[in-house]
Amino acid sequence: MDDLVKRHPLYAQLSRLDDDMEALQLRSVGPSPALAPADLRRQQLALQKELEAASDRANAALKAKQQEYAKRENDAIREALASAGGGAGPGGAAIGAGIDAQMQRQARDVARKAQANLDAYRKQVVAQDESALRAVQASLNERAARSYRTKLEQLQKKEADEALRLANENSGERLSLRTKLSNLVLDETQRDDARKQLEALDRKENDALAAMKNRDVATLNAYQNQLRAETGAEINRQASAMRARTLAKINKRERDTPTELATKLGLPVGGGTNGAPRTAQLPSDVRTKLEALHEKYKQDFTKDAKATIDDFQKTRAQLTNRFAKLQGVDNASLIAAQTQLTVLQKQRSQLYEQMVAQIGREVKLIAARRGINVVVSDVAGPSNAVDLTADAEKDIESLHE
Amino acid sequence: MRTLFHPRVAAAAAALVLAVAMLAPATLAADVTDIGYVDQTQLSNIPRFAAANRQLAQYKADLDRQFAARMRGVKNASDQGRIAQEFQNKMAARQRDALGPLFQRAQVAIASVASTKNLSVVLDKRIVIMGGQDITRNVIDLFNGVGDPVPPVSTPPPSSVGFVDQVQINALRKVKAANDDFVKFQQEQSNAAQQKMKSAKSDADRQQIFKDMQKTLLDKKKQTIDPMVDQVKRAIAVVAKKKNLLLVIDRSNLIYGGTDITSDVSAELK
User: Fold this and answer.
1) Alpha-carbon distance A258 to A272, whole Å?
2) Is A104's pLDDT higher than 70?
3) In this structure, are residues A18 and B2 in contact, taking their beta carbons and an 8 Å threshold?
4) Is there a contact between A386 and B28 if contact means CB atoms under 8 Å apart?
5) Average pLDDT of A278-299?
6) Per residue in B123-154, pLDDT tens?
7) Whether B1 and A18 lie within 8 Å, measured CB to CB
8) Nearest to A385 among B4, B25, B28 (CB)
9) 3-state SS track over chain B
10) A381-394, pLDDT tens digit by residue?
11) pLDDT in tens, B210-226
12) ipTM of this complex prediction, to 2 decimal places
């Protein structure tokens, strides 16, 4: 096949694609790192150390900033409370701290109770759900069993009716044969003949009944499968509905709990109990002022911290780049070369398939002309078969014209 | 088609040189009716195979994560090698468990269909240009059937299509010697070319180094590999004639049946 491919008019194009891929692969080889493995490892370790140091510095800076902003915020709040209490000094701060501590205690107690209530409620609802589901399962299974029994009885009655009908239908003939057999003057041949007829009659009836029973067994099996599937589907449907209802109940209770908590603690509904200063029992103008202070310091800290994080990320990017260069890998160009290589490989594969298909068509024509019905490629060596390669080469070459 | 001797893959490619060269680019034909073929791509798309492959892919993804976790902090090269081997063994065992019974079932289905249709040999569809009976659908139907496919009572009838196991031929002393000699030479050339690449100033320089290496390798191949390939081909031709075979293919393209002439070809080569 490869020889034929070389003779194909599109081979030049295929060859060019090979050259392009080869050139790309060659470029990606590039100059290898000139460092000895030990030096390379040493430099990698040094870079790793730098990266770790930069990470430690960034973390320390963030921690320091966090403490600094928290201190600044506390000072500002203390000052605001002092001025709200009628003058600067520890009086306002002490009031603020006292209120805060008391509220935290209350919040913890209320939250603990609320959580315990919620857990008990969840357990109760799940238990109810399970019990209801068991009842539904029992009821549906009982219904299915009843339906099955009814069907079974119907079929058994039909079988009994059919047995009776067959017996009645053949009763005349059977009586006649039995009468014949009771005749003492009957010779042995005649007796044997009558006996055989009687047996045939019995066999016919038995066969008909057996066939009916087989059909009924199959019907019952199918019906049982159908009932099982229907019951299973119904149980699943009801279980899903129950679970959805239970989940909705629990979700609602979970949603309501924070609202109840907030109401009990005197906090704005929807707001958390963490982070913001606990200011519910303060005059509204002081509360607004404290909330504004908290918001301001939070924003200042976020802005400052972002600058520190950005610095660290920049350092990390630089170090990563140095890592890559150290290993002789230029990631961007390598990825670009790989992408291009993939595209070229796809193009080559499509072109090759196209050429092979055309060669296949030509070979089939030659084989048909020579009355040959099987053609195989990629043989391991010469043998006794007809070699069509030369003919095919000629035909493929004629495609150039 | 040219073989790309990229320096980084040169060693791997070298091992294939003899095998590829021995698959002569000839198109042989015969007027026979007992040849069937199977499209292995279609077989691999059977839902049970596809499901097994999906499971294996999932298992591999999990294993990769576990492997990365285990390798974290392991500095010693021998420990790294041991862990890598352990995970490779796990993967191989799972592959055997998942695909082994399916391959076995497919083999029995192929044998059963071939026997029913009186085929003496079943080939891989990729090498059949024309003719032969496509039994892929029958095999898939039997594979997907409710019960287990029943293996044929008798062995396949004698076939006019012979096959050689290239792996065994490559293991013969003189063939292996020629191959090893070439691989060694190729490795040396590849190392030398890589050294030159370091001092190359431009792509054109690198291209030239690469072309020089290819030419040197081609010359060496003509000198060491090609005569061996000719000997093997001659041996195959002698055995094929003796056994009155119409075609001789490589074992890798055979699915079922055929006449194994590997030992005769080996004897002829000694």
Assistant:
1) 8
2) no
3) yes
4) yes
5) 73
6) 999 898 888 899 999 999 999 988 888 888 87
7) yes
8) B28
9) CCCCCCCCCHHHHHCCHHHHHHCECCCEEECCCCEEEECHHHHHCCHHHHHHHHHHHHHHHHHHHHHHHHHCCCCCHHHHHHHHHHHHHHHHHHHHHHHHHHHHHHHHHHHHHHHHCCCCEEEEHHHEEECCEECHHHHHHHHHCCCCCCCCCCCCCCCCEEEECHHHHHCCHHHHHHHHHHHHHHHHHHHHHHHHHHHCCCHHHHHHHHHHHHHHHHHHHHHHHHHHHHHHHHHHHHHHHHCCCCEEEEHHHEEEECEECHHHHHHHHC
10) 777 778 888 888 88
11) 888 889 999 999 999 99
12) 0.74
Query: Residue A97 — very low, low, confident or very high, per pLDDT cuts 50/70/90?
Result: low
Closest CA to B168 of B232, B218, B116, B119: B232
**Structural Rg of chain B based on CA atoms:** 23
Fold (topology level) of B35-145: Protein Binding, DinI Protein; Chain A (3.30.910)
| Residue from A29, A365, A379 whose CB has the most chain B CBs within 10 Å, to mutate | A379
Q: Is B35 on the interface with A (CB under 8 A)?
A: yes
**Residue indicated by tokens 């082994």:** B100
Spell out which residues of chain A touch residue B38, defining contact as CB-CB under 8 Å: none
pLDDT at B14 over 80: no
In angstroms, the CA A318 to CA A54 distance is 11
Asked whether the beta carbons of B156 and B121 are under 8 A apart, the reply is yes
- CB-based contact, B258 to chain A, within 8 Å: no
Yes or no, beta carbons of B26 and A382 under 8 Å apart: yes
> What's residue A319's pLDDT?
75
Q: Where, residue-wise, is CATH 3.30.910.20 in chain B?
A: 35-145
